[in-house]
Design goal:
The complex is a heterodimer of chains A (about 525) and B (about 375).
Chain A: E1 21-32, E2 35-46, E3 50-55, H1 61-68, E4 76-81, E5 84-86, H2 91-96, E6 99-102, H3 114-119, H4 131-144, H5 160-173, E7 178-182, H6 190-205, E8 209-214, H7 217-223, E9 226-231, E10 234-240, H8 247-255, E11 273-284, E12 287-298, E13 302-306, H9 313-320, E14 328-333, E15 336-337, H10 343-348, E16 351-354, H11 369-373, H12 389-398, H13 415-427, E17 436-440, H14 448-463, E18 467-471, H15 475-481, E19 484-489, E20 492-498, H16 504-511
Parallel strand pairs in A: 3-8, 3-9, 6-7, 7-8, 13-18, 13-19, 16-17, 17-18
Antiparallel strand pairs in A: 1-2, 1-4, 4-5, 9-10, 11-12, 11-14, 14-15, 19-20
Chain B: E1 5-11, H1 17-41, H2 46-59, H3 61-85, H4 94-111, H5 118-147, H6 151-171, H7 207-224, H8 226-236, H9 238-243, H10 248-275, H11 287-297, H12 304-325, H13 331-352, E2 353-359
Antiparallel strand pairs in B: 1-2
Classes of the chains: A alpha/beta (about 525), B mainly alpha (about 375).
Chain lengths: ~525, ~375
């Protein structure tokens, strides 16, 4: 243990009569070009417990997990399985030791059935597959851990939560005793998270060990028996005892300073009308996506759109940004009609747009930060990179983007830094000074430190007099930031309320479609 | 029984620069080694064969000029392929566009009269060849950019049509393109002013400079211009292009038309250069298909195509001379061509993965 780490709660190794350590890692060092991802890290997990690795993106938790399952080999340090040394040269070697990882991005074949996916990669199956027997085995494994799933279902037709269950069943079928779950809740809706946690409990009851990787404080406190906090590749604290931990303390260990978990609405004057939307309707493939939407946003005002995913939010943003032509209605940005005129026209009158997909839509992954800054600007016939280079360096400093400079490739940025590059570009104006900023899920998938930065950037932009449309599925975010909240349900605005006096239950009811035409 | 060794593929984050340069060289060497097995098996000495090939292709002055002469058209078809490939558009119909370039160039060379000076006629022939190549890819480009129809299928199939078209314009008795003065079917000669002089007594024409300059200019266009920027955005993420207001349909259309025009230009260079007429045996030479291999060998780097094009031309020239001087079958050259493509593509695996062979040992406990 290094000198910066400390024990917050009572260290679990003081307790007597605990289950034996199933897997431990000692003095792990892993270096990537330019980064010390793991710096002398110790970690252990006992049979039947949930031990969480908590840390910001880039803290080194995924690297440690990859070492624990055999995907990476440490530069130095060693692993013990049931107290005996082992060398993992590959994930398959990890599996032979009963260690399996459930990746954040599933590795399933969409066209295969559940059981075909489960047996994929298994050896010793024989030439001819006995489907009936395999289906029964898969179903038996699934049911014994309370993970009911139809072995004959085609994976491509399953929900995200069910696919994750297939990944877990696959690991269990292959004989995993220790499961590493990499950010398992990132892709799940709240109801699915609850189910996952039930599954985790039934697995630990059966003596399996769970290494839970996350940066979401709330769920970490709920699920973990013990927590190890990583920051910049080092262990900064161990916390144990379910439910007894203080999220504020965990956040401090994770980020290295005190942070404000709830953003405060700044007081600020509201100016003239910047965005005006009148009777906007849109159909895609003959399905009505937006229906008669009208609202406006003023300078220095942030309007939040709340709603369950898929109720027209993304399409609303794309339409305002000029990417989709509406069936009817009008959009006016600072007095200029931009309906149906395309994204460049909208940008010329002051639009900036941070889409939900950062890499692949907002940013071009294979291009440098510099070239990505040029994406929404006027590039001239011969691209002038020399004159924008100083500005790129300045923005990297100003937005505290962790990068090797303007030539750093976008795909090598962490999620938080990619979002900062996007915000830097959109807030710094391109074809004209930014007057209207449309942001979609600006903090999704980011860690606590980055969330704080992004929210304060949005607040600063508002204070600077920009009009902001905040579209987010994170209701807390909308409630705590927006001056005015609109609820989208099936493409229509079903509720409007000032942010300061918004009630969670009314907004929640509107999101669920329980308020009919319930405007204020 | 399983061997106690295992091959491990570790994905590389970023391919090291030296490997990027090494892979094409090693693929050529591997192809030569592969060819050596066949030479040995059929009773030829690989060392003698390759020595002869090398000296015929690169080491004699005649060999060098012949190699450069052949590389002129191969660089054109190479950049035609690579220019589209780098945007993930697989125009594999360069062969057919090359035929059309010959037809278009010959038409201009025959029709536009004997009164124009060479300084105007030669560029006109080249332009008409390029236009004809672009015309041949127009329909595939249109349906690809509007409807997303696979350009692989459409450009390939049109090559067969183009091949029949060459036969048609040469073997039809009253064809405009057929030489009326010979009973044996031959192409009609273009006006003298549409022909270039070769350098000295070589078969090398000044068009080589056009090809090389084009490769370098296009390389610059992709790296430095707005058009190139758009190509790079679309190649990586079409959604980002849409987001930024880049018109992907128009860019796709432009890139495909340029690709077709470059292959067509290669055909027209054969008119102003060595042939001076439509040469029906072109359909057996596969210059257009060779462009695909050359592009792969250069990893679609437009400037590097100058090098891979010359290398490839040397192998072919060497292979052809070998058949004349010894009795080694010409097919060794064709086989090497295929083997190079195979190994160049296989070499990608080495660039993207760190490949190790490890001994599988019993798990230590």
């Amino acid at each position: 243990m290094n000198d910066t780490s400390h024990e917050v709660a009572q260290g679990s190794h003081h307790l007597g009569g605990v289950a034996p350590t199933a897997l431990s890692a000692h003095n792990i060092v892993k270096r990537f070009p330019g980064v010390l991802a793991n710096d002398n890290v110790d970690f252990d997990v006992r049979a039947g417990e949930v031990h969480t690795l908590l840390g910001e993106n880039g803290a080194g938790k995924s690297t440690l997990a990859a070492i624990l399952c055999g995907l990476y080999q440490p530069d130095s340090g060693y692993l013990l399985r049931n107290g005996k040394p082992m060398h993992l040269s590959s994930p398959r070697a990890g599996l032979q030791h009963g260690i399996a990882m459930v990746h954040q991005h599933f590795r399933l074949v969409d066209r295969f059935t559940v059981s075909e996916n489960v047996i994929l990669g298994s050896r010793d199956l024989g030439f001819r597959l006995n489907r009936k027997e395999i289906n029964e085995q898969v179903a038996a494994v699934a049911e014994s851990f309370g993970l009911p799933i139809d072995p004959n279902a085609v994976v491509g037709e399953l929900s995200v939560g069910q696919r994750q269950r297939v990944e877990i069943v696959k690991a269990l079928y292959q004989g995993a005793e220790i499961l590493l779950l990499d950010e398992p809740t990132a892709v799940l809706v709240p109801a699915e998270v609850e189910k996952l946690f039930d599954n985790v409990h039934s697995m630990t009851k059966a003596g399996k060990s769970i290494v839970f990787i996350s940066h979401k404080l709330g769920e970490v406190v709920e699920i973990s028996d013990r927590v190890t906090v990583l920051r910049n590749g080092r262990v900064t604290g161990h916390v144990s005892g379910k439910g007894t931990t203080d999220t504020r303390e965990l956040a401090r260990l994770m980020v290295g300073r005190d942070i404000e978990l709830n953003a405060q609405r700044a007081t600020h004057p509201i100016g003239h009308e910047v965005l005006q939307i009148r009777n906007l309707s849109l159909s895609i493939n003959e399905v009505e996506v937006l229906s008669d939407v009208s609202f406006n946003i003023h300078a220095g005002e942030m309007v939040g759109i709340a709603g369950v995913a898929g109720n027209g939010q993304r399409e609303l943003a794309d339409t305002i940004a000029g990417l989709i032509s509406p069936a009817s209605g009008s959009i006016t940005i600072s007095g200029a009609m931009t309906t149906d005129r395309g994204p460049i026209q909208a940008r010329e009158v002051g639009l900036a747009y941070v889409p939900e997909d950062r890499l692949g839509m907002g940013l071009v992954p294979s291009m440098s930060i510099l070239d990505n800054l040029l994406l929404t600007r006027d590039r001239k016939v011969i691209v002038d990179r020399t004159s924008i280079r100083p500005e790129a360096s300045r923005l990297i400093d100003q937005f505290e983007i962790k990068a090797n400079g303007p030539d750093h490739l976008a795909r090598k940025l962490s999620g938080g830094n990619a979002q900062k590059v996007l915000l830097a570009r959109e807030l710094s104006g391109g074809r004209s000074a930014t007057k209207l900023l449309v942001v979609c899920s600006p903090t999704r998938g980011l860690d606590v430190g980055a969330i704080e930065t992004v929210r304060s950037l949005l607040n600063d932009a508002r204070s600077a007099g920009q009009a902001i449309l905040l579209i987010s599925e994170d209701l807390d975010e909308v409630m705590s930031l927006a001056d005015r909240i609109l609820v989208l349900y099936r493409g229509a605005v079903v509720h409007e309320t000032p942010g300061a006096t918004a009630s969670l239950s009314t907004v929640g009811a509107a999101m669920a479609g329980l308020l009919e035409n319930g405007g204020v | 029984m399983r061997l106690p060794i295992r091959v491990v593929f570790d994905q590389r984050g970023e391919a090291p620069k030296r490997l990027t340069a090494l892979v094409p060289i090693v693929s050529v060497l591997a192809a030569l080694f592969f060819g050596a097995i066949f030479l040995l098996a059929t009773g030829y000495s690989p060392i003698d064969t390759y020595t002869n090939m090398f000296s015929d292709g690169f080491a004699s002055s005649r060999g060098v000029t012949d190699t450069l002469a052949l590389s002129t058209v191969l660089i054109c078809t190479g950049i035609a392929a690579a220019f589209a490939f780098q945007m993930n558009i697989y125009n594999i119909g360069g062969e057919g566009q090359l035929y059309l370039g010959m037809i278009g160039g010959a038409w201009a060379g025959i029709t536009l009269g004997d009164h124009l000076p060479s300084l105007i006629m030669v560029p006109l022939v080249l332009i008409f060849g390029a236009l004809a190549g672009a015309l041949w890819i127009f329909v595939p480009a249109f349906v690809r950019s509007r409807l997303g129809t696979s350009e692989i299928v459409s450009t390939l199939l049109l090559t067969y049509v183009a091949s029949s078209l060459i036969d048609y314009v040469i073997y039809t008795p009253d064809s405009f393109f057929r030489n009326p003065n010979t009973s044996f079917p031959q192409g009609r000669l273009v006006s003298a002013s549409a022909k270039l002089q070769s350098f000295g007594d070589t078969r090398l024409y000044p068009t080589i400079f056009v090809a090389i300059i084009l490769a370098v200019v296009l390389y610059w266009v992709v790296k430095r211009t707005e058009f190139g920027y758009r190509i790079n955005v679309i190649a990586d993420s079409p959604k980002a292009a849409h987001y930024a207001g880049i018109n992907a349909k128009r860019t796709t259309m432009s890139v495909m038309l340029i690709s077709g025009a470059l292959a067509g230009l290669g055909g027209a260079m054969l008119i102003v250069g060595p042939y001076g007429k439509i040469e029906p045996s072109i359909v057996n030479l596969g210059y257009g298909y060779a462009g695909i291999v050359i592009a792969a060998l250069a990893r679609n780097n437009l400037a590097a195509i100058v090098v891979s094009g010359i290398l490839f031309a040397g192998l072919r020239v060497g292979g052809e001379k070998l058949q004349i001087s010894t009795d080694t079958p010409i097919h060794i050259g064709v086989m090497l061509q295929g083997a190079i493509l195979l190994f160049a593509l296989g070499g990608e695996a080495f660039r993207r993965y760190k490949i190790r062979v490890v001994l599988v040992r019993a798990v230590t406990t």
